[in-house]
Write a structure and sequence with these properties.
Layout: H1 6-11, E1 21-23, E2 26-30, E3 56-57, E4 69-70, H2 73-78, H3 97-107, E5 112-114, E6 120-124, H4 131-149, H5 157-172, H6 189-209
Helix pairs in contact: 4-6, 5-6
Length: about 220
C-alpha cells in the first residue's frame, strides 16, 4: 500500500534521470501482534525499512528494498535485468534479486537515493512471524549473498577461487560463529538474534561451498 502521492514524487523528482534507483521507507502492517522475540535487528528480513527522515544517497552495503524503489526501464535492461534464480520460488523465500540489481546500478556509476516521502506499507503475514520461518529466511539471505559475490559475470575465475577460499577459511576457522545455529534459544530474544545471525552465516558458507538445500 503506497502513499497517495508516490507516483508524483517519483516522476517529478529533479534527479530521477541521473539516479540509478529511487525509493523510500517500508512500514509494517502486522497481521498479528509482533512477537517479543522479533528484535529490531531482524525487521529488515521482514521487509521493514527505516532509514530516518532525511533524504540521502546510500553508500556501502546499504540498499533499498524492492518493495519500494523505482528504476528506469532502459537502465534495467542495460544492466541485464533481474536474476530470477535469486528471487522467491514457490514457498521458498530466496532473496537477493533486488540487491543484485542495485549492485549493478552502482557498478556503472549510478546512485541509490532514499527519499522519506516515498513511503509504502507492507503487510507482514502471520505465517512469517514464526522462529522457523525467520531462520529459514536468514539461511536464504546468506546463500544469496554468496551467490552474488561469486557471480561469474562480474568476477574472474582466479578471483572467484580466491574469494571462495578466503570465505571458507574465515568461517571454518571460527566455528564458534556457527555454534548458535544449533543451540535452543528458549524464550530469550537475544539468543534467538544470535541464532538467526549464525543461520545466515551457515547459508553463506553453504553458498561458497557450492551447495544449497531447500530447508537450510
Amino acid at each position: 500500500m503506497a502513499t497517495p502521492d508516490i507516483s508524483a514524487i517519483i516522476l517529478t523528482h529533479d534527479r530521477v534521470a541521473l539516479l540509478g534507483c529511487l525509493g523510500g521507507p517500508v512500514v509494517p502492517f502486522w497481521e498479528v501482534s509482533r512477537p517479543e522475540w522479533l528484535l529490531d535487528s531482524l525487521l529488515p528480513f521482514m521487509t521493514v525499512l527505516d532509514m530516518g527522515d532525511s533524504a540521502c544517497d546510500l553508500k556501502g552495503e546499504t540498499f533499498l528494498f524492492g518493495t519500494n524503489f523505482a528504476i528506469q526501464r532502459d537502465l534495467l535492461e542495460k544492466i541485464g535485468g533481474y536474476r530470477t534464480e535469486l528471487g522467491p520460488i514457490g514457498r521458498w523465500h530466496r532473496s537477493g534479486k533486488d540487491t543484485y540489481v542495485q549492485r549493478q546500478v552502482r557498478r556503472i556509476g549510478r546512485t541509490l537515493r532514499h527519499e522519506p516521502g516515498i513511503r509504502v506499507q507492507h503487510r507482514v503475514q502471520a505465517g512469517r512471524l514464526t522462529k522457523r520461518w525467520v531462520l529459514r529466511r536468514m539461511y536464504w539471505e546468506g546463500l544469496a549473498r554468496a551467490r552474488q559475490t561469486l557471480d561469474p559475470s562480474h568476477i574472474q575465475p582466479g578471483e572467484r577461487r580466491a574469494c571462495t577460499w578466503k570465505a571458507r577459511r574465515r568461517l571454518l576457522h571460527s566455528p564458534r560463529r556457527l555454534v548458535p545455529s544449533v543451540i535452543p534459544t528458549g524464550s530469550s530474544s537475544k539468543l534467538f538474534e544470535r541464532k538467526a545471525a549464525s543461520r545466515r552465516r551457515l547459508g553463506t558458507l553453504t553458498g561458497y561451498l557450492g551447495f544449497g538445500s531447500r530447508e537450510g
